[in-house]
């Protein structure tokens, strides 16, 4: 039994103080502070200014292993996730050898089962020639979704075939798209519309990392037609823009203008944007200092504390933060209700409120952050995955992880 005493939890009414009792992987009781009976043998955590939220689920991560494990590997990435309050990650297929077939998926799953400290799911990349194979059970039972690159980025996985772009909607798993901007977004919506006329139930179409006002407007319009259309934004496209961040600035999509960032915040507040995806894309400092650096920022370690801080500053409700960082992705991947309520599976992160700054002590192997020096109001004390304390005060505890395929 683990008891977290007198911590703030997000309720419909806002943050309220509660005692939270966890046993057998689940929340047992949520009581007003000090109202629960004393239970001998219980582990009690009583932070000074504790804030407990459902642990985040990150649908957009580039773990890098196999192939680029000098940048990041499953152990370092999952440790960075836990320190950032993330309990499950979904890994992109643009590895050194792109993951496009069963063999690549099996190889990655074997590595992750051995090394990951968080639950995980995998994506397969669509190519001009593999759509029929993706529909087969042997691939379907290994994936959480299909990733499409409509524009050039790390990995060279651009899809050109019209047949592939249409047929991919004839399989049931979510289809995630790196659009490369408004043009690619319109193009994939064209195929989605076409597929609607042919297939009964469409899979979810998930637009990755919105970065401009234009894309947000397009998504908003298309969402009126498609309930199954979803959109993601990264913490860096919300918190950074061309005017406040330049160093190691190469990222795809590029950082927007301050106005773009404000519009994206609006999209989050209104619920047009469903998911926080970190697009954690680690590259070494050496690589980022080159004349033509690879695109991408690490982000999984800092995302939730920074967003907690920003939501507070913007007076956005805690319930919206929980939907954005956890609940929407839990629904997408059928992970069950993660809210802090009796009987629900207990995956949560306990933050301490205070004044800190991003920098140093990184778990990510690349050991840098675009948020270096940024003030943050929260620091992770403890991360619980399905009832087990897997991170506490800088220490990790490896448990059996779950391979997610729903
Ligand atoms: O900046 C990016 N980095 N954007 C992407 O789409 C890919 C990613 C990577 O894999 O490095
Ligand atoms: Zn992308
Ligand atoms: Zn990405």
What keywords describe this structure?
2 domains, 8-stranded parallel sheet, globular, binds (4S)-2,6-dioxohexahydropyrimidine-4-carboxylic acid, TIM Barrel, Urease, subunit C, domain 1, alpha/beta
What does this structure look like?
This protein is of the alpha/beta class. The protein has two domains: 2-52 and 343-399, Urease, subunit C, domain 1 (Roll); 57-332, Metal-dependent hydrolases (TIM Barrel), CATH 3.20.20.140. The chain has helices at 74-83, 102-115, 131-135, 137-140, 162-167, 182-198, 213-225, 235-239, 258-270, 285-288, 303-313, 318-332; strands spanning 2-11, 14-23, 26-31, 43-45, 50-54, 56-61, 86-91, 119-125, 145-149, 175-178, 205-207, 229-233, 275-276, 348-357, 375-385, 388-392, 395-396. It has an eight-stranded parallel β-sheet. Strand 7 (86-91), helix 2 and strand 8 form a beta-alpha-beta unit. The relative contact order is 0.17.
Main CATH class of the largest domain: Alpha Beta
The bound ligands are: (4S)-2,6-dioxohexahydropyrimidine-4-carboxylic acid, zinc ion
Question: Distance between termini?
Answer: 30 Å
Which segments are poorly predicted (pLDDT under 50) over 5 or more consecutive residues? none
**Percentage of residues assigned to helices:** 25-40%
| Fraction of residues in β-strands | 15-25%
Strand order of the largest sheet: 6-7-8-9-10-11-12-13
Count, helices:
12
And the CATH topology of the largest domain? TIM Barrel
The tally of beta strands, per DSSP, is 17
**Which geometry do the CA atoms define?**
globular
Mean pLDDT: 96
CATH superfamily of the largest domain: Metal-dependent hydrolases
The biggest beta sheet, please? 8 strands, parallel
State the domain count: 2
